[in-house]
């Protein structure tokens, strides 16, 4: 009963999103300014945003400034406010050259804003395009911002956006023993939720301290159904440049814990797999240093041989790539998971790595997830804002 009451109280703007009637135009939360501008009147506002935070073709920061909203701070996640930093690169604080607004890094020495950074704020806005994969770190940045907002009694507004992998609930549910910045919550690798729904769940399940104190409002996406295809209008990060990379990301992200290349430092990151010592197919490529995307990519300046996945039909989570390459490494008396601790953080458990190295079939591995996935599907129900026709 408590969860349902939470959702009713938090979603004063969500009724229009629940319709099942077909609609032609999907409107993000940010694009529905009439629904949230009244909340910002005479408020000092801070925004956790990046290059995906658009209102049409205009950045949300610029759109709000045109409406005379007082923006006192910008908070930058991984890849930076303008989205041009390498994955994992430290983001420095500073001042936005275009607006003169202070920019505070949420991906440097601290991932949670301080009391000093928040002291002038009456409202915090989160508006970042996610890709629906647990180890993509924007939802971790949202987690820490929610925790800070609860601690310092600052209302938080989440402007929701579609999940391009929203049709899928799949993969192992995170064991909190493996919690890290690439996995903060006990959710599957593919959770099938939007950032707005996740924010409601983080609050409702008490996954942040003082969750009950947080005044949370979500502006849902209008005319959206989670199973409908949605192509992002702007790349969410330098190494996810197109829809194919976004679709392959759940399956290829695990290779970050191996010595293989998945195309960082090429024009097609997260769309190829390769190695320099042995290969599956005859396709070849050479990773090079690419400022803003991969300064020192794996196997840099080496000829790499492997698989070209740019034209494959990619949907959901596939373990076939990991299993096939692990078999090849084993046949060559080599260890593929050279960073096992990181692999376990990405997977949210050590079981996936152990199952693969022990030679279990993909069907057996998937079967081991089903009880946890069913429990999660039930757990998430009170927080869903959009029609749920059964995730794949």
TrEMBL record:
It comes from the Bacteria. The keyword RNA-binding does not apply. It holds the Pfam family NamZ_N. Keywords: Signal. Residues 248-386 form the Peptidoglycan beta-N-acetylmuramidase NamZ C-terminal domain. Coiled coil: none annotated. Residues 1-19 form the signal peptide. Residues 45-243 form the Peptidoglycan beta-N-acetylmuramidase NamZ N-terminal domain. This is DUF1343 domain-containing protein. The lineage of its organism: Bacteria, Pseudomonadati, Pseudomonadota, Gammaproteobacteria, Alteromonadales.
């Amino acid at each position: 009963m408590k969860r349902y009451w939470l959702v009713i109280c938090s979603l004063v703007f969500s009724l229009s999103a629940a319709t099942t009637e077909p609609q032609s135009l999907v409107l993000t939360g940010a694009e529905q300014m009439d629904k949230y501008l009244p909340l910002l009147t005479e408020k000092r506002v801070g925004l956790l945003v990046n290059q995906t935070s658009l209102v049409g073709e205009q950045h949300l920061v610029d759109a709000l400034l045109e409406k005379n909203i007082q923006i006192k701070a910008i908070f930058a996640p991984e890849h930076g406010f303008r989205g041009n930093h390498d994955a994992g690169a430290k983001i420095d604080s500073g001042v936005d050259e275009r607006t003169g607004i202070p920019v505070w890094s949420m991906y440097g020495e601290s991932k949670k804003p301080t009391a000093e950074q928040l002291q002038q704020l009456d409202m915090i806005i989160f508006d970042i395009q996610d890709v629906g994969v647990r180890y993509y770190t924007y939802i971790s940045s949202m987690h820490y911002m929610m925790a800070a907002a609860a601690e310092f009694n600052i209302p938080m507004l989440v402007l929701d956006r579609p999940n391009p992998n929203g049709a899928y609930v799949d993969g192992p549910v995170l064991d909190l023993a493996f919690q890290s910045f690439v996995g903060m919550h006990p959710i599957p690798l593919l959770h099938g939720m939007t950032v707005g729904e996740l924010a409601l769940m983080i609050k409702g399940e008490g996954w942040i301290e003082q969750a009950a104190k947080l005044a949370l409002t979500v502006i849902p996406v209008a005319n959206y159904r989670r199973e409908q295809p949605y192509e992002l209008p702007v790349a969410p990060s330098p190494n996810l440049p197109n829809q194919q990379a976004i679709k392959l990301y759940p399956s290829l992200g695990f290779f970050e814990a191996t010595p293989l290349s998945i195309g960082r430092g090429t024009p097609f990151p997260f769309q190829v797999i390769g190695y320099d010592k042995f290969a599956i197919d005859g396709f070849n490529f050479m990773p090079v240093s690419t400022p803003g995307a991969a300064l020192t990519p794996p196997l840099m300046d080496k000829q790499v041989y492997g698989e070209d996945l740019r034209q494959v039909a990619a949907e959901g989570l596939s373990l076939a790539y990991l299993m096939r390459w692990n078999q090849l490494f084993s046949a060559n008396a080599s260890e593929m998971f050279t960073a096992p601790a990181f692999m376990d953080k990405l997977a949210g458990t050590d079981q996936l790595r152990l199952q693969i190295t022990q030679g279990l079939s993909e069907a057996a591995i998937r079967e081991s997830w089903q009880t946890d996935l069913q429990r999660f599907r039930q757990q998430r129900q009170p927080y869903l804002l959009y029609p749920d026709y059964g995730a794949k």
